[in-house]
Amino acid sequence: MLVPMIIAFGVIALLIAGWFTLQIQKIQISEVTDSNSASKMELISRAISDGAMTFLKVEYKYISVFVVIFTVLIIVLLDDPHTPFNDGLFTAGAFVFGSIISLVAGYFGMKIATQTNYRTTIKSSKSLAEGFKTAFLGGSVMGFVLVGVAVLGLIFTVMAYTNFLAGNDTHYIMEVVAGFGLGGSSIALFCRVGGGIYTKAADVGADLSGKVENSIPEDDPRNPAVIADNVGDNVGDIAGMGSDLFGSAAEATCAALVIGASATAIAGNMDALIYPISILAVGIIVSIVTMFFAKVSKESDVEPALKNQLLISTVLMAIAMYFVTDKYMVAEFTVLGKSISAMGVYWSFIAGLVSGMVIGYITEFYTSHTYKPVQEVADSSKTGAATNIIYGLALGYKSTILPVVFLCATIIIAYSLAGMYGISIAAIGMISTLATALTIDAYGPIADNAGGIAEMCEFPDEVRDRTDMLDAAGNTTAAIGKGFAIGSAALTALALFAAFITRSNLSEIQLLKPWVFGGLVFGAMLPYWFSAMTMKSVGKAALDMVEEVRRQFTKMPGILKGEQEPDYASCVDISTQAALREMIGPGILVIFTPILVGYGFGTEALAGVLAGSLASGVSLAISSANSGGAWDNAKKYIEKGDLGEGHKKGSDTHKAAVVGDTVGDPFKDTSGPSINILIKLMAIISLVFAASIASKGGILLHLF
Amino acid sequence: MLVPMIIAFGVIALLIAGWFTLQIQKIQISEVTDSNSASKMELISRAISDGAMTFLKVEYKYISVFVVIFTVLIIVLLDDPHTPFNDGLFTAGAFVFGSIISLVAGYFGMKIATQTNYRTTIKSSKSLAEGFKTAFLGGSVMGFVLVGVAVLGLIFTVMAYTNFLAGNDTHYIMEVVAGFGLGGSSIALFCRVGGGIYTKAADVGADLSGKVENSIPEDDPRNPAVIADNVGDNVGDIAGMGSDLFGSAAEATCAALVIGASATAIAGNMDALIYPISILAVGIIVSIVTMFFAKVSKESDVEPALKNQLLISTVLMAIAMYFVTDKYMVAEFTVLGKSISAMGVYWSFIAGLVSGMVIGYITEFYTSHTYKPVQEVADSSKTGAATNIIYGLALGYKSTILPVVFLCATIIIAYSLAGMYGISIAAIGMISTLATALTIDAYGPIADNAGGIAEMCEFPDEVRDRTDMLDAAGNTTAAIGKGFAIGSAALTALALFAAFITRSNLSEIQLLKPWVFGGLVFGAMLPYWFSAMTMKSVGKAALDMVEEVRRQFTKMPGILKGEQEPDYASCVDISTQAALREMIGPGILVIFTPILVGYGFGTEALAGVLAGSLASGVSLAISSANSGGAWDNAKKYIEKGDLGEGHKKGSDTHKAAVVGDTVGDPFKDTSGPSINILIKLMAIISLVFAASIASKGGILLHLF
Question: How many CB atoms lie within 10 A of CB A405?
C-alpha cells in the first residue's frame, strides 16, 4: 500500500515545516540588547521582506497572464477530434495545478527565508552554534515545504486522473499527468530567470558603484543598492533555485510515470506505477533523520556538517530504497522492448544517486579555495584582471570533463540495466535527497542575508565574523547544489526526450537525416542565444543600477557621510522592473522554440533540437557555474590573505580578482542555472505536445 | 578533359606566385633614405625572419616524429588480412604526401610573409597605395602557393592511386586518397595550435609587461618581447591559419571524392569524379581575375577594396562553376539511395558559396566597430573591465545565432538537392575562393608586422599612420576569414562524418541508443576540454613571458631608458618552447579520442562523439572568435576617441577595454580557431579508420 505511505510522508513534511516555522518565529527582535541595532533591524528586515514580497507579487501577476495564455494554447492545440473529450482540458488542469503548487511553494519558501535571515543575526550574536541552527532550520522549512507539496501534488494528480479518466489507457493518463511537470517547469523558467536577473543586477550594480567606485565595503548601509542586493538573495537564490528544483522533481517523476506506464505490468499495478513518487516521499523521511546529524559547535564544524548531510542522506536513501523497490516494484517487466528487473531499476536509482553526489563533490573541487584550481586563479590575479579571466574561463571549461563523464556513465549504466525507465529513475535518484539539498542550498542565502543585516544594523564585529563563517560554508554547498541541479536536469531532459519519442510514434531518430542534424546544430546554439540574453540583461540592469546610485550620491551628498538615508526603494524598483522586463525574451525563446520547430518542421527536427540543446547546454551550464564559483572564491582566498599580505583588499591583485568575481556573478547565478530550465522545459513542452505535433506538425516541410 | 585543366590551373597558381615573389624581392632596404632606419631594419627584419624560421624548424622536427609514429599506426591498424596487400601502406603514403605538401606550403607562406613585412614598411613610406600593393602581393603569394599545391597534390594523388590500385573499387580507392586530407589536417592541428599558442603567449606577454605594467606603447623596441610578438604574427596568423585552410580544402575535397565515388555513375567517369578538385582549380583563375579589382589610393579605399574582393570572387565563381558543372558533372546519378541531378550539385555549391559569404559579413557586423554591437562593448567599458567582459561574452554568444541558422539552412538545402554529396560540395563551395580569402587573411599580419617594423626602426609618424590604416582593415577581414573557416570546417566535418557512416556499413545511427546519446553528450564536452587546454597554455606561457620581461627590466635598467639592447632572443625562445610543449596535450586529445572511443566502444559511440563535438564546437568556436574580435575593435574604437576625449588612451575606460582585448587574444587566435581542427580532424581520423573500427572496434562493450 504505497499510496497512503506517500500521502503520510508528504503530510509529515508539511507538519515538520510548520513546527520548525513556529520554532523560528519564537525568536524576537526584543532579544537584541542594543536598542539602536534593534530599531534598525526592525526597519531593515521589513525593507528586505517587503521588497521580496513586492517583487513576488508583481512577478506572480506576470506569470498568471502567461499561465492563462498557455492554458488556452494547450486546450486549443491538444484538442484531438478523435477522442470523446478535449484532451487539452485535462492536461491544462494538471498544468494549472502544477503551476499553482510551484507558486505556493515559492511563496512560503521566500516568506520563511525573510523571517529567518534577521533571526539568524540575532542568534549569531549569542553563539555560532545557535546562528547555524537558526539558518539551518530556515533552510529546512524551505526543503520540507517544497518536497512535501511536490509529493502531495503528484500523488493527488495521479489519483484524481486515474479516477476521472478510468477506462483510458494508463500510458495516456500519465501523459496528461505530465501537465503537472510542465506547470512546475514553466514557473521555474520565470522564477529562475527573473530571480537570477534581479539578484545579479542588484549585486553587480551594488559592487560596481560601492566597492569599485566609492570604496565602501559590501553591505554598507550607505549604499542605496544594498537592500536590493539582499532582496535579490531571497528572490534568486531561494525562490528561483527552489522553483528550479521543484521543476526537476516534478518533471523527472512525470517522465518516469509516462515511460513506466508504457509497460503493461506497471500500468496494471498501482504500487509499481507510483514507485517514482515514492522515491521523493522516502527522501522526506531520510532527510528528517539526516537532520539529527547536523551539529555545529565551532567554525571548523560548519562546512563538514553541511557536506556530511549529503553523504549521510545518500547512504540512508540507498538502504531505504532497496526495501521499497524489493517490496513494491514488479519483479520483471518490459519497456520499449527491453526486459527489466526490479533490481535493475534499483541499481539505476543508485547510479543516479551516487553520480549526483560525485558530481557535487567534483564541483566543490573546482570551486572551493581549499583546492589547487581556485588557488591558481587567485594566483593569476597578480598579473591583472585579464589573466584572472583567462584562468577562470579555462577552469570552467576544464571542470566540465569529469561531470560529463559521470553523466555519460550514468546514462549508459542506467540504460543497460533498465532502459529508458532506468534513465528516468536515475534522474529521480539524483534529486531523491532533495529536502536535504534544498536545506543546505537555502541555508546559504539566509546566512548571507544575516551577515548583511549584521553589518547594516551595526552589530558588533564578532557577530559579522560568525555570519561570515556560516556564509563561507554556504558558498561551497551552493556550488555542490548547482552541480546536482545541472546533472539532474540533463537526466530529466533525456528521460523526457525518450518519453517524447515514444509518444511521437517514431520507432527511431536517424542522426544523419538532414532535419535531425540541422536541428542538432541549431539546438546546440540555443544555450548560447539564451545565455546572451540573460547575461546582457544583467549587464544592462546593473548599469541602470550604477546610474541610480551615482545619481543619489551626487544629489544627496549626505549619504556617503552617513548623515542622510539613501533611497533604497528606487534601487529595489530598478531590479524589479529589469527582472520582469528581461525575463520575457528568454521565456519566449524557450517556450516557443519547441512549438515552432515542431509544428513548422516536424518531430525529427524537434528531436534534433532537443538533443543538441541538451548536449551543448550541459557543458555550457557546468562551465558557467564553475567559472563563476571559482572567481568568487578566488577573491575570498585573496581577501583571507593567503596570497600574502601585499595582495589583500585594496591591492591591484584584489581589484583584478573583483573583476572576475563580478563577471562570475551572472555566470553562476543567472545564465548558468537558467540553462537547466532551457533544456528541461523544451523537453517537457515537446512531450506534452508530442502527439499533436506528430499528427499536425511539419507544415513548412513541403517548402524543401 | 578536366585533368589537364586542373593541372594547368595549379601550375598557373605557382607561376603567378613565383612572379609576384620576384616583384616583391625587387624592393630593397637601400631605398630607405635614413641610414639609421635602414640599418635597424636590416637587423629587425632578420630577427623576425630568423625567429620564425627557427620556430618552424623545431616545430617541423616535432611534427616529423608525429608523422612517423602515426604512419606506423596507420599501417598496423589498417592492415586488413582479407586484402591481398596492406591497405594501410597506401593510406599511409597519401598521409605522408599530404603532410609534406602542407608543410611545404606553410614554409613558403611564412618565408614570403617575412620577406614582405619590412618591404611593406619601405613602400608605405612612399604612399599608402604602394604599401597596400606590397602587403597585398605578399598575401596573394601565400594564397596562390597554398591553393596551387593543394590542387596539384590532390589531382596527383587521385591519378597515381587510380593507376596503382587499378582494378579495385573506385570508392575504396578514394578512401585511400582520403589519407591526403588526414595528412593536411594533422599538420594543421600542430601548426594552428602551436602557432596560436606562440603568437598569443608573445602578444599577451608583451601587452601585460609593456602596455599595462610599464606604460610603454605597443611595438616599442625597448620591450624585450616585441620581436617574439612580431614573429608570432607570422607563425600563428600566417603559417597556422594557412595550414588550417589547407586542411579544410584537402578534407572537404576528400569527403566529396569518397561520397561521390559511392555512385557508380561518378565512379566510372573521371571528369565527374574529380569535379570537387576542379572547384578549387577554377577558384585559382577566379582569384587572379579578382585581384585586378584591388586598387587603393586613399584610406577609405582599403577596407572596401578588401571586402569587395570576396564579393567579386563569389560572383565570378558562381558564373564559372555553372559552365563547369554543366559540362563535366554527370546529369543524373544516385548516392546512398538518393537520386541527384547535376544542377542539384550546382545549387548545393551555390548554397555553400553564398552562405560562406553571408557568414563572413555577419561576422564583420559583430566584430567591426562600424556597427552597434562593438560600440556597445566599448561603451560598457566606462563602468570597468567587468562590464566590458560581460558585454563581450554576451556579444559572442549572440553572434552564433545567424551563422548557425545559415549553416543549418545550407545543410538542409544542400541535402535536399544532392544528399550527402551536396553537403560535401557545399563545404568546398564555402572555401572555393580560397586564394582570395587567404590573400586578404595573410595581408593582415603582414601589414601588422609592417607597422611594428616602422615603429621599431623609427620611421616618421606618417609611415606608421599608413601601416595602421592598412592594419585596421586587415583586422576586419581577418574576422571575416575566421567566419569562413568555422563554417567550412562544420560542413567539411559533416561530409566526412557522412562518409564515415557509409564506410562503417551502418545503415543508420539511432540517436536514442545509449552509446550514441552518451557519445553525443561526451563529444559536446570535448571543445571545452580542448579550449581549456589551449587557453591555459596561453595564460601560462604569457606569465612566463611577463616574468622574463620583468627580469630583463630589473637586471638591465638601461633598457627602459633606451640605452641598452634588450635580449629579444630569450623571449623568442620562451614562446617557442611554450608552443612546442603545450601543443602536445591538445594534439593527443584530438588524435586519440576517435581512436580510443572507436576501438573501445564501437562505431555508434564514435558517431555520437563526432556529432556532439561538431554541434557544440561550432557555437563555441564562433562565440570565442567573435567575442575576441569585438574586444579588440572596441579597444580600437576607444583609442580613436569615438567615446569622447576623456576615454582615450590612459583613461580607466581604455584600461578596461585593454583587459577585454587581452582576454580576447587567446579566444580569437588560439582556442576559437583550434576548434575547427578538433571537429575536422576527429572526423577524418574516424573516416580513415572506419572500416577497421567497424570490424575490430568496440572491444570494451562487453563490460556493459
Answer: 17
Averaged pLDDT, A601-608: 95
- Torsion angle (degrees, nearest 10) of CA A130, A136, A141, A144: -140
Q: Which of A408, A505, A665 to mutate to test the interface with B (most CBs of B within 10 A)?
A: A408
- Taking the C-alpha atoms of residue A237 and residue A447, their distance in angstroms, rounded to an integer, is 12
Q: Which residues of A touch B517 (CB under 8 A)?
A: 411, 494, 611
Distance between CA atoms of A686 and A608, rounded to whole angstroms?
Answer: 12
Residue B621 has a pLDDT of: 95
The CA-based dihedral angle spanning residues A567, A571, A572, A576, taken in that order and rounded to the nearest 10 degrees: 150
Beta strands in B394-545 (DSSP E): none
How far is the CA of A409 from the CAs of B518, B519, B552, in angstroms?
A: 8, 10, 51
* Unique residue bearing C-alpha cell 577524418: B684
Q: How far apart are the first and last CA of chain B?
A: 55
pLDDT, one tens digit per residue, over B558-569 is 888 888 889 999
B249 CB-side CA count, 13 A: 34
Q: How far is A199 from chain B (nearest CA, A)?
A: 16
d(CA A151, CA A432): 11
What are φ and ψ of residue B85, in 5° steps? -130, 170
Q: Look at residue B504 and tell me whether its pLDDT is greater than 90.
A: no
Residues contacting residue B581 through CB under 8 Å, at least 6 positions apart: none
- Cα(A508)–Cα(A519) distance, integer angstroms: 15
**Total residues belonging to chain A:** 704
Q: What is the β-pairing status of strands B332-335 and A338-341?
A: unpaired
Q: Quote the CA–CA distance of B86 and A31 in Å, as a whole number.
A: 88
Q: ipTM of this complex > 0.90?
A: yes
pLDDT of B111 over the 70 cut: yes
pLDDT confidence of residue A144? 96
CA–CA dist B185, B170 (Å, integer)? 23
Total residues found in chain B within this entry: 704
- Chain A residues close to B607, C-beta within 8 Å: 511
Return the closest-CA partner of residue B363 out of B142, B621, B611: B621
Cell numbers of A258, please? 509516462
- Which pTM value belongs to this model? 0.94
Residue from the list B387, B394, B659 with its beta carbon closest to the beta carbon of A543: B387
Predicted confidence at residue A333, as pLDDT, reads 93
Residues with Cβ < 8 Å from B292, sequence gap 6 or more?
A: none
Across the interface, whether the CB atoms of A508 and B509 are under 8 A apart is answered no
* Sequence-separated (6 or more) residues with CB below 8 Å from residue B635: B378, B654, B657, B658, B660, B661
Read off φ and ψ for residue A51, nearest 5 degrees. Answer: -60, -45
Residue B248, strand partner residues: none
Q: Could you read off the pLDDT of A67-111 as tens digits, one per residue?
A: 999 999 999 988 876 666 677 899 999 999 999 999 999 999 999
Cα–Cα distance between A411 and A276 in angstroms, integer? 18
Closest C-alpha among B608, B588, B606 to residue B678? B588
Predicted confidence (pLDDT) at residue A604 exceeds the cutoff of 80: yes
Q: Which of B71, B63, B12, B13 is nearest to B439 (CA)?
A: B13
Q: What is the mean pLDDT of chain A?
A: 91
CB atoms within 10 A of CB A703: 8
Query: pLDDT, tens digit, for every residue of B331-366?
Result: 999 987 889 999 999 999 999 999 999 998 999 999
B517, B529, B546, B549: best to mutate for the A interface, most A CBs within 10 A: B517
Q: What is the DSSP letter of A371?
A: S
Give the Cβ contact number of residue A419 at 10 Å.
Answer: 24
User: Cα torsion at B181, B183, B189, B192 (round to 10°)?
Assistant: -80
At residue A623, the pLDDT reads: 95
B226 with B220: CB under 8 angstroms? yes
